[in-house]
Amino acid sequence: MAIGGNVGTGVNITSDMARGQQKIQSQQKNAKKQAEQKKKQGHDQKAAAKAALIYTCTVCRTQMPDPKTFKQHFESKHPKTPLPPELADVQA
């Protein structure tokens, strides 16, 4: 009778440990790759959003993406201030 628990079961201990090590390495590599992609994507989104805000309110310095939104903002937030000349012909 054999003393070892794996005798006769066909399981090779060293092979299982090597596959376990490969699994750990693969998981670490995948986690690093995912983190790099997420970091890269986040910066691109921020840059694109910032580039889209091209109109700046002269009173409160709030940035807006288009003249229609700018005019609506100006009329609702600064009703007593005269409308800037660039917004005079914009349809809100």
From TrEMBL:
Residue span, Small EDRK-rich factor-like N-terminal domain: 17-53
Primary location recorded for the protein, binned into one broad class: cytoplasm
InterPro entries, sorted: MBS1/2-like (IPR045230), SERF-like_N (IPR007513), ZNF706/At2g23090_sf (IPR026939), Znf_C2H2_type (IPR013087)
Pfam families: SERF-like_N, zf-met
Residue ranges of every copy of the C2H2-type domain listed in the record: 55-77
Keyword Cell cycle: no
Entry's Gene Ontology molecular function annotations: zinc ion binding
Region of interest: Disordered: 1-47, 69-92
Single GO cellular component term: nucleus
GO BP, sorted A to Z: regulation of translation
Keywords associated with the record: Cytoplasm, Metal-binding, Nucleus, Repressor, Translation regulation, Zinc, Zinc-finger
Basic and acidic residues compositional bias, start-end: 33-47, 69-78
Cellular localization per UniProt: Cytoplasm; Nucleus
Matching SUPFAM superfamilies: Expressed protein At2g23090/F21P24.15
The protein, known as: Zinc finger protein 706
Gene source species: Callipepla squamata (Scaled quail)
